[in-house]
Amino acid sequence: MVREPTFGKLVRVGLPNALRGELWEVCSGAIYLRFANQGVYEDILRKYEGQTSTSTEEIEKDLNRQVEPMKSLPEYSAYQKPEGINRLRRVLTAYSWKNPELGYCQAMNIVTSALLIYTSEEQAFWILNTLVDRMCPGYYRQMDVRLMHHFYSTSMYGALLDQIIFEQLVEKTMPLLWNHFKKTDVQLSVACLPWFLSLYINSMPLLFAFRVLDCLFMEGPRILFQIGLAVLKLNGEELLQTKDDGAFLDILKDFFTSLDSPTEHETSSGRNKRLTYREFAMVTDELVTELRRTNQLKVVAGIESYTKRSAIRHLNDTAGFSKDDIATVYDKFFGALYYSKQQDDKPETRMNLDTFQRMLASMTSWGKLKVMDDTSDEQAVKQVGRQFIARLYQYFKLDHEQGIDFQGAVTGLSEILHGDLMSHIGFFFKLYDEDKDGLLRNADIIAMAKELLWLFRYYKPDLAWDAICSLVVHSDEQSEIARGEEPEEAELARQLAELTMTDPSATPVQRFSQLDASLSSKTVEIAEPSFRMIILTNECLEMFFDHGFVDTFRLVQSTTERTKSLGRELFENLFAEGKKLATDVPTPTAKLRPSPSPSPSASQHTHSPSVSSPSSVYNQSPPSDDNKEKAKKQDMSDEVDYLFTELGHLDV
């Protein structure tokens, strides 16, 4: 029957309820997935029975809302009863475990509940897979408020992309109406974005929504655009009289309500079909694919820009960073989080130690923890470097936090980059005062000496050993003074000479051993004022604490980083789609979409104060910053901002 030339016409006339579920499955191609994966649905339910996740918690919240009056599908009684709710729960839960990266998001419950009216649970499960993965790619990306404020993600970019395409089609096919909307500042997305998200199920009576699904599964996503254009055309005369969004919404609400009226049913239905399939037949799958490809990078860049600005606005304290510099810190922080994410892992908003080290590696040479070879000496040096980074990590995160959040990174970096000599001395004192008792003891001084010796390899390696010896010997001296004892100048001079006059060819491990032994017979306790005196005693140490450590940071984006940043998740989605096409069972309705070919433009970057290059073979400066002109996408950015507002993010 599917091969009959009249099949399409029969579908448009209307499917019989008894066959609707099976024909949805056949037309969408989901039947092939179900036959190729027999038992998978039941296996998932058994495997994850009793387990919970963030997605299952969100599902439960929506299911509780589902049974309240006037919520999703109020006209259908099955979803006011436990049996219907349990069926919906099982399908949504199974999909969230099958695709954990996406999990569950808004509008899935609406679409799935409509499918279950005419299909079994397993059929609905595989049709949902087909919808999300192939027919409406990107519509149901995770929409988590935390992530929208704290993670650069192109959430639901597919729905936003198609909304932009829909507005372009309105401008092309109904220029008079489009110009009126622009003149009166009426936003199409107020009403039209929910059409695409819910596939019209929440916008029109169920009888008509099912007819939309009939055509969607047979003809593909172009039907969503054609019906939307037809609705605007049918109400064009009234819409030309609107002056604001409220009147716009009222007209469309009255129209959809009138579809249930017996007097309007026949005329509206006939006009709707005629307009959709004749006047807007120019909207083809090929046109939709081409427009998606043309606008993809623009939309992703707009969403990325919105998410960045939103995260920055939600900071409690920008800690003295300029607008440009805070944007660069954002890119460094969330770039490290993104590229540390394992495949299929959910995005994180807090850094663990490894991710923190990745962020430092994008800012400093020492953060890369490079070594010349795999000898024991070089491995010992690397271990000292790891200890310093771990110490910074513990300092940046509060004790009660499970990792470093964006605010913690901003505050910590500001303390380093915006401090003066005295504040830097205080910073290092607190860094090594692990028990927070206001004193540095033997172990603290030796740990600092080793780690500063490692850092000096990226600052002034030829002066490193003398400076570190001065730190150790004068710590002993200041400790004696603090105890009220008179230090013996001759003894201090002898200790300093013994440390400094060592074999210049001594290995790092040998020098570390010397430091371990240097205070073994001493009892050192240094308060912060005494620590300041120790640093100010040695010119090299003073210069390092004043500006040397700061100068090892480069708060700029390299050309490579800027290229990666723009559209990174878009390309990840394209890659994932390619994998699915390569591994899924081919279906007659599956179509390959061409990958976007344009190269992403450079994103905004900032410059920090000049940085002195460490005189060390271990230092490799980041690539120089290209001053490319930033492509201006203000119109697209404004549109994306508004679309996010309509999705509930009102902080534009």
Structure overview:
Helix content is 62%, strand content 1%. It has a two-stranded antiparallel sheet with strand order 1-2. It starts with 6 loop residues before the first helix and ends in a 6-residue tail after the last helix. The C terminus is likely disordered. Among the domains are: 129 residues, Helicase, Ruva Protein, domain 3 (Orthogonal Bundle); 110 residues, Cyclin A, domain 1 (Orthogonal Bundle), CATH 1.10.472. It is mainly α and 652 residues long.
Compute the CA-based radius of gyration.
Answer: 32 Å
| The named CATH superfamily of the domain at 7-135 | putative rabgap domain of human tbc1 domain family member 14 like domains
Query: How much helix, percentage-wise, in residues?
Result: 55-70%
Unreliable residue runs:
142-154, 268-276, 565-572, 585-634, 648-652
Average predicted local confidence, pLDDT: 78
CATH architectural arrangement of the domain at 7-135: Orthogonal Bundle
- How many runs of DSSP E, i.e. beta strands? 2
Summarize the structure.
With 652 residues, the chain is mostly helical.
List keywords for this structure.
Helicase, Ruva Protein, domain 3, Cyclin A, domain 1, disordered C terminus, mainly alpha, elongated, 652 residues, single chain
